[in-house]
Amino acid sequence: MRIALETQNAGKGHDPRGVSVLVKFRRMPSETAGIEVLSQGRAAVYEEPTGPPGVRIRERPRTDPKPGTVAVAIRNAALNHLDLWLAHGDQRITPPRVIAADGAGVVQASGDPSWKPGDEVVIFPTLCCWECEWCRAGENVKCPRFGILGEHSDGTACELIHIDARNVFPKPASLSWEEAAAFPLTFLTAWRMLTTRAQLRADETVLVVGAGAGVAVAAIQIAKHLGARVLATSRSETKRKRALDLGADAVFDSTNFSKEVRAATKNGADIVFEHVGPATFDQSIRSMAMGGRLVFCGSTSGGKAEIPMARLFFNHASLLGSTMGNASEFEAVLKALDRGLRPVVDRVYPLDDVQAALTRLDAAEQFGKVVLAVSEV
Predict the structure, then answer these.
(1) Is the separation of the CB atoms in 325 and 197 below 8 Å?
(2) What is the DSSP string of 94-126?
């Protein structure tokens, strides 16, 4: 028996051989627009769904921060696949929208006593109300107004951003500006996936699928940092070598990798870290050990996947969805960075070359994060 997982209406294209269910890879909150984020000065703005050419540099007026918010002069911002989905019109977002969830910079003005001009900071990219029952319990990702910076609000690819003071954290002193911009979304996402959702233990084996993407590179580093044995896959020989340099214990080509994984582990991986989706999902499930956990945060290869049901229930396996992370998890990432973790920067582009930066991401040429240099404040 097989089951079709799809992100579209379950009543359409129903497969009579199985059961169709609705799976949302990203929650689309209805009230996030009420959380005000202002992107000002020169900014990279998604204007039409034509891919990278649809993102253009525009000038936006500057204002003073309101009480409870901080105005941060962005030094560097970083791109994610989310920005590509936006540029291609794959998200239900009406333009214009300033892109990018990741950013680091210097406080220019503050409407909150927690921060003063000159403070060097990074931006926590999870949007929430900070006041509801879930937020007070530390579960920001379950806030009814949950969102992602740069998707459900304007983002960090701008000279000046006004944001809630609670979304601002001290920049790790050990990181360069480019590195500080590179880690927030991917390291936060990977940390939650491995620690909170999959409950990784130091004696376990983690398989990271699709090494090269920012979140996968973060997962390799975090899993090694936490004492796990790490395996990784990639279609690219160059990226497989980079994964080994980063600390992976073994690497495999992305084609039919489950047999090699099972041979290398004798039983399979305890945790499979997924973000690719349909192109690799079947092989990822086949790579799991008895009682294994497959944790996934996205589906870059499409919205539908078929899974072999018997492998799940006979092996007592778990499928775990995850998106973004909480403020407490962001603080845990900051502590890990202080203890030696360092994000991988693939390439840095001037803000004016944002289309070229998005094109590199679109071609899957990167290993690590593609970063934008916004200013020299």
Answers:
(1) no
(2) PSPEE--SEEEEEEEEESSTT--TT-EEEE--E
Residues 38 and 175 in one domain: yes
Question: Where do we find the tokens 């996030």?
Answer: 32
CATH number at residue 282: 3.90.180.10
Structural domain of 111: 32-183+344-373
Q: How far is CA 232 from the centre of its chain?
A: 18
Look up tokens 């007070």; give the residue.
136
Calculate the CA dihedral of residues 314, 303, 185, 368 and round it to 10 degrees: 90
Amino acid at residue number 10: A
User: Is the four-CA dihedral 10, 12, 13, 18 of positive or negative sign?
Assistant: positive
Q: Is residue 25 part of a domain?
A: no
99, 68: one domain: yes
Task: Kindly give the interhelix angle for 214-225 and 237-246, rounded to the nearest 10 degrees.
Answer: 30
Q: What pLDDT digit, counting tens, does each position of 81-136 carry? A: 999 999 999 888 999 999 999 999 999 999 999 999 999 999 999 999 999 999 99
Q: Is 189 left (phi over 0), alpha (psi -120 to 50) or beta?
A: alpha
351 lies in a domain?
Answer: yes
pLDDT, tens digit, for every residue of 267-283? 999 999 999 888 899 99
178 and 36 both lie in a single domain: yes
Q: For residue 284, is it within any domain? A: yes
Phi-psi region of 107 (alpha: psi -120 to 50; beta: other; left: phi over 0): beta
Cis peptide before 96 (omega within 30 of 0): yes
Distance CA 358, CA 370 (A): 8
| Nearest-angstrom CA–CA distance, 354 and 342 | 24
pTM equals: 0.90
